[in-house]
Records
---
Amino acid sequence: MPIKNRFAELQPEIAAWRQDLHAHPEVLFDTHRTSGIVAEKLSAFGCDEVVTGIGRTGVIGVIKGKSDTSGKVVGLRADMDALPIPEETGVAYASKTPGQMHACGHDGHTAMLLGAAKYLCETRNFDGRVVVIFQPAEEGGGGGREMCEDGMMDRFGIQEVYGMHNWPGLEVGQFAIRPGAFFAATDLFEIEVEGKGGHAAKPNETIDSTVVASHIVLALQTIASRNADPVDQVVVSVTGFETSSQAFNVIPQKVLMKGTVRTMSAEMRDMAEARMTKLVEGVAESFGAVAKLNYMRNYPVTVNHEVQTDFAASVARTVSGDCAPADLVMGGEDFSFMLEERPGAYILMGNGPSAALHHPKYNFDDEAIPAGCSWWAEIVEQRMPAA
Ligand SMILES: [Zn+2]
Ligand SMILES: [Zn+2]
């Protein structure tokens, strides 16, 4: 039984919701209109509980099955936020907000999970509870983290969580997944090096912060080449290098550097941060300078749990007949915070030959709606079979 017939019927309605969301993008936590529409629709569908204001502008809906004797509670998550990118799709329903657009397809994610919620409220053909999770600020704001910090998992008794992202380049209606590490941890850092400024013609009277910072940049290269196991992935990139003076004849007092660290495991992440701290402080000290590392942990590694990944893949095969192995992604994903709190899985769903994610010509493909909604509904009906 592939695509559920009900979603073929509902597709035009769900596509209309999606296009309305597309025309009104909202970024980070400012998803006030979107959250309002989500809450209003969940109530209209007959959700047993609708709660707003979780993780600032996040929305939760609870749907009970025909029976609720299994004790099972499954969470399904969609993201709602758009990006600060001027749209160039030329579609009739293009963004009405200058400089913002749904360039990552979160309009499609929100509409599909709403479609699944509508179906699940109509049919309730399961034994247990579904918690539909609509989060703001996936694109850098950590909305998923804030919803977790608001106690969402315990409050609604969520036992497992599932998430989905559309994927350009994968055929519409097809799915891809991998167990274990999937999306990278995406940390940020700043390093301030302070020496002793002075005249460029008298370096002996200074502590040259530029020379010290240059040694630090080189030392950081040894984290990947000498500290990491060669079969593991770690990227340490210094992307900014700014001196406190731009004059030709001044040795600057300070240098400020910044950059990013990408890792695929908690161990590599801890190792990278620990080595950076030692190298930055130790190299500076050896020159008589002082350096401070500000290491900012952003999104953790998105780790798919084995059992739930196998299940998610088997559900994808039910819907589309196949489920491809996915490659590692060096981008980040804040569903990772939910997967740190509960077992679950994140799957990719084909968006066909569209422009890439975050491109001004990207658009979600409404033809993918029936497959995406069917996957959500099957996750629920197969995980918590009707008594
Ligand atoms: Zn994105
Ligand atoms: Zn996205």
Note: The radius of gyration is 24 Å.
---
Amino acid sequence: MKKENRNNINRRSFLKVLGSGVFVSTAVFYGCKPERKSADHYNIGEVPLDKMTYRTNPSTGDKVSLLGYGCMRWPLMPAPDGNGEIIDQEAVNTLVDYAIEHGVNYFDTAPVYCQGMSEKATGIALKRHPREKFFLATKLSNFSNYTRENSLAMYYQSFKELQVDYLDYYLLHSVGGGSGIQLVNDRYIDNGMLDFLVKEREAGRIRNLGWSFHGDVDVFDYMLSLDVKWDFVQIQMNYADWRHAQGRNVNAEYLYKELEKRNISVVIMEPLLGGRLSRLNDHLVALLKQRRPDKSVASWAFRFAGSFPLVLTALSGMTYMEHLQDNIITYSPLEPCSEEEFELLEETAQMMLKYPTIPCNDCKYCMPCPYGLDIPAILLHYNRCVNEGNIPKSSQDENYRQARRAFLIGYDRSVPKLRQASHCVGCDQCTSHCPQSIQIAKEMARIDKFVEDLKQGREF
Ligand code: SF4
Ligand code: SF4
């Protein structure tokens, strides 16, 4: 048996045998980089079958589970031809079955997720369940080619990939990037796609029409000013972005309150800020653990998102079974945050600002880099070292030698040498794709210089 096959079987077996009552350390399994260290140990305990919190969509009366499945991080396995990776369909089926069995009924995908493989895999897994058991969301991801012809082709292809004849939730994907309002007009208005989608809703092929937002206030207000009934809007909302959104992102407090004024349902993306709210600095983990020792750090972020009544569902891209289980528990049922807990999370967000990580959420929209860099892996390694105190500010720092070693050894383990920041040529083809407005080329240059200084043992 080939080694790669053996690994796959081990992982599948692991997914199947993981039952309730498991003591988990996210040190081992969170995200795609299993070597991460963390102080987050928690006892999963029993996973309730029938205690999920549901919210009602005022547009259609849908009873939607507060936990939504984000289908952008399905488990991968090596392709049989040795060329890259494919989605591990058996693992996806197992996760989807478990989610539905435990009350999750909202699945959110897009033509661009998992390098174009998510819709198909999601469709295969869901096809095995009665259609009325789930709500399916997908998107018009016409990022670079927004001709009417291409946009229509993308729309119809989604039905084929997902094997359905209606979509419960359809979104204009990532509204607000690039040139702002002009790009909104180019992608949806001038090519007639928005009018077309409104008619599709009238015809019943789309049950709810909305948009996901990654832009500035002007674009957000513009979208709400259009003469269209929006059934829902998907926004980035978590306790860090509530009042301390970074880059071009808008504070979620503003976004939520504008939607609340109009009674528009809110779908939450990034409740964990791309996993960063589950990978807090050890000091912050200790602070939260004092309050709820047996609960995961991530559960705080999900409770925050779910505590707002207009939130229909909070999406989580759950690659691993223990994350699915932990999130099901958090919302089965939801225990809303008290005023005191909201204050604690605001203090946590303020303290996070003192440990400035790069706001990468591992969405991979910047990939592939034509020069082979693994951009998110580089940024995530950097962030991990910030959180663990392994970014020495000066060669005179007390822990300089230990931090230097941890950064350099971890870097080579997390990112193959040929994919490291030193290979960036500054072509800047990636930056415009980043919804977090990270100046990727500049960050690559900065990290590369930092690495070189560490390697040379230079004073800084
Ligand atoms: S700027 Fe660097 S990271 Fe971005 S696409 Fe070019 S080579 Fe890749
Ligand atoms: S750098 Fe930006 S586009 Fe790339 S993975 Fe991170 S957040 Fe996504």
Note: The chain is about 40% helix and 15% strand.
---
Amino acid sequence: MHAPAEPEFLACRIDGYTELPPGKLANLVTYLEMTRPPPPRAPARPDLTLVETTRDPDAYRALYRRIGARWLWMGRLALSDAALARTLAGPRLVSRTLVRAGEAIGLMEVAFGEDGEAELAYFGLVPEAIGGGSGRWLMDAALAQAFARPIARLTVHTCTFDHPDAVAFYVRSGFRPYKRAIEIHDDPRLAGYYPRETAAERWPVIQPAT
Ligand SMILES: CC(C)(COP(=O)(O)OP(=O)(O)OC[C@H]1O[C@@H](n2cnc3c(N)ncnc32)[C@H](O)[C@@H]1OP(=O)(O)O)[C@@H](O)C(=O)NCCC(=O)NCCS
């Protein structure tokens, strides 16, 4: 039997710059929380509906990529078919797809913990739907889903790879920032989850030296 791989450590400077190993990306993560939901804010949108998210791994990954490619989302792409299907079918996950004119345009997922807390684990729209009020409508729906169960706290985190207005959007949604972290991870394009040109205008691939 193989021993589990030892985690690798990188000494980060607490002030100044820390050079990243080739093939790695780093982002600044902001954690936010909410203990009580504010009243819903979005106007009525008869053009929008919420449906259960597909549990078919390929269909799910296609939607996840349409929303997340620009922001280099990769958490769900690292899961095998079986692990993804298990995650999506889990009793503690509420996953809903936002639909407009028969087309999926957004995704939101609330993961309920065993500690009376929940996390807004995924929240986003396809690029063409951003900026038209659908995000606010989806947030009202997400908060309703989360607080439909007796939770004491809802958290969310967003990072510098996400939409530049995401933190402000979450604050306007009633979340309070409470913590930051630096996350270092493999570049998902070099790991093969996205083509190399994905999001390259903001985050060009830096080719590791051979
Ligand atoms: C974060 C995200 C969901 C926000 O969605 P958005 O489309 O920018 O948000 P909206 O246009 O719905 O809302 C922005 C504001 O404009 C208003 N607005 C814009 N167009 C509108 C319209 N046509 N009608 C009504 N309101 C409108 C909204 O009411 C809202 O105002 P408020 O915040 O004061 O309530 C979106 O940017 C996104 O999907 N980003 C990519 C993924 C991501 O970064 N996710 C978050 C981190 S995990």
Note: Residues 41, 71, 123-125, 130-136, 158, 162-163, 165-166, 169, 172 surround coenzyme A (CB under 6 Å).
---
Amino acid sequence: MANDPKIIAIANQKGGVGKTTTTINLGAALAEQNKRVLLIDLDPQGNASTGLGIDHDKRDATTYDLLSGDVTLSEAVQKTSVDHLSIIPATTDLSSADLELVDNAKRSFLLRDVLRASSAEALDFDYILIDCPPSLNILTVNAMVAAQSIIVPLQSEFFALEGLSQLILTVRDVRQTANPDLRIEGIALTMYDSRNNLSLQVEDDARENMGDMVFKTVIPRNVRLSEAPSFAIPVLTYDSGSKGSTAYRSLAKELIEKEKKMRAA
Ligand SMILES: Nc1ncnc2c1ncn2[C@@H]1O[C@H](COP(=O)(O)OP(=O)(O)OP(=O)(O)O)[C@@H](O)[C@H]1O
Ligand SMILES: [Mg+2]
């Protein structure tokens, strides 16, 4: 019998820290391990959709339509060029202004409710990864309410840790109100440069303060990772032997191992 999908939000309110890059490439790396993966683009910028080749004219059924109840999960899901990797694309419709109109009591629960209501369709997937916008707005809260855990990409640069306390407060808040089981799956250091003292220092700080919560795998700064989206494919397809590909494969394996341990415990 199929297990429930594991739902993970990729979140950090700081912009440009590697959320979308992590969503796409961790997703592709899990798919490569024969996991069935659904990406939900929850960012009105639609970067994950573009990075996986869903052109604007192919975004008829979007995350916004899903949250509005206008389409079902299966109607919104599109295949990508990568086997086992599907996506629900986003457009600027998703800007939270529209969602703010929804009645107060319900608006944090839209994604959770839609996934619950589509539980049979969601069983087609082993993982659902949610790419969040760079904000702790209602969209990110929806992701945190719907998810079992969150992965926080942390850019290996100065001030990286500054926003983290605010993020952790939001997680705590969601735990106390809407989703008591929400966990931080892990913090992933991104754009890491081992020749740069600052990267080493951010890593030391993160491991000292957050301990095991920080993934052992670090994602190096790698130009292949930044080139791949312009070809609308994950780095694993674009340059399978690149350092970026190796790192995201390692992160996927670490995630799978972590889960095995948790289940055994
Ligand atoms: N490890 C990396 N090495 C080199 N470039 C990277 C790496 N990770 C991300 N980038 C590049 O940095 C930029 C920001 O990355 P990305 O879009 O993944 O961040 P984000 O957190 O999703 O941004 P936003 O907050 O706007 O959604 C992109 O141009 C991306 O290609
Ligand atoms: Mg992004």
Note: Residues 15-21, 43, 45, 47, 134, 190-191, 219, 221-222, 225-226, 229 surround adenosine-5'-triphosphate (ligand 1) (CB under 6 Å).
